[in-house]
Amino acid sequence: MTPSSPATGTAASPAEDRAPVVVGTPGSFARSVLDERHPALLERVRRATPYPPELRAALDGLLEEVTEGVIEPLDGTEPGAGPWLAWGGGHYGRPWSEVPFLWAESFFYRKLLAALRYFRPGPWQGVDPFAPMKAAELAGGGVDSEFAALDRLPGDPPERDRALLHAALWGNRADLGFRLSAGGTGPGERATGLVADDSARLWAVLEASAPGTVCLVADNAGPELLPDLVLADHLLATGRAAAVVLHLKAYPYYVSDAVTADVLACLARTAAASGRAAETGERLRRALADGRLELRAHPFSCAPFGYDRMPGDLAADFASATLTIMKGDLNYRRLVGDRHWPAETPFAEATAYFPGPVAALRTLKSDVVTGLEAPAVERLEASEPGWRTSGRHALVQVSA
Ligand SMILES: O=P(O)(O)OC[C@@]1(O)O[C@H](CO)[C@@H](O)[C@@H]1O
């Protein structure tokens, strides 16, 4: 994969003065992820699978590096090490907290897979270290409740649209990374109302032209991916889309991000269900088999950059879509840029480079946000200091 330009994250950019790139400043949310979530994740991975001694030793080495060391490049013999050398330019040899947060997180996940020999031929090749956690989530009772809720969907079409859009939106709270910090209980009680709501615009964009292709850029597996798949089925069934292209991650990433195996696991879960869940699953299987639901796992999906650096073939994909729907917090960070934007910065301005109409469905789990009204920001700042990262708030934003 070759992003349109190599990025070190240190080059000056016009946005830099107004919106500095997020790094792990002491006391920041980003720093807590680097100092707390990443070590906790290494421990969780180690407990989840009985890795042999050499893999456990590699995990120990990574733990030492992220807690006490500086960023070391991938071993030169690691498959795919080349691009990371180019992308890492000025970052190697520096503390993890001093480089762009998005780069540091992405590289952490890549190093974790290197430690576990995910890309090397041999018995551990292709073994998803997060699979045990994803499987437990998918088997959980929460999924049964979601399936039961499908049987109680409102009959009124606009109400049904809203219910399915909101299921996909709030499904983004199902992020396993969230459980790894601050007591590990997951996001707090969800807030009523959205901090920004362009839902009407989203449906209007889909209805403004003949049914075309919708790109749905997935985020987490299991309890988030299921309502995303249900939304994809709804877009196809209601003629809002002639085809849906579901963009997945190219390899395990940010703990619970969805890869192809996770889509198949969701379909297997629906096959074991009854009622609407089973019917939806059956339609999705047919859509996959006849090409109306297509899976893509572009290498850029795990690159440590924003979408403003996406390569031409991916941009062409999004350009040809009636609408691209970006799910989740990380995709939002990559869409608008992982920067400390003033929250009132118009969403359309931050996404002006995007090659087609784009929507974000996201719960707020990081410092980055755009497109809010000033009074709403003042209210949130005054009443709820952790509103940007608590996962209690959500938004639907559209730029078309
Ligand atoms: O993309 P998702 O699943 O909604 O969120 C991923 C996430 O939890 O990971 C980062 C911390 O690791 C946060 O910035 C972000 O909230």
Automatic annotation (TrEMBL):
The keyword Metal-binding applies. Keywords: Hydrolase, Manganese, Metal-binding. This is Damage-control phosphatase ARMT1-like metal-binding domain-containing protein. Residues 1-21 are annotated as: Disordered. It catalyses: beta-D-fructose 1-phosphate + H2O = D-fructose + phosphate; beta-D-fructose 6-phosphate = dihydroxyacetone + D-glyceraldehyde 3-phosphate. InterPro entries: ARMT-1-like_metal-bd_sf (IPR036075), ARMT1 (IPR039763), ARMT1-like_metal-bd (IPR002791). It comes from Streptomyces minutiscleroticus. It holds the Pfam family ARMT1-like_dom. The keyword Cytoplasm does not apply. Residues 1-14 have a biased composition (Low complexity). It comes from the Bacteria.
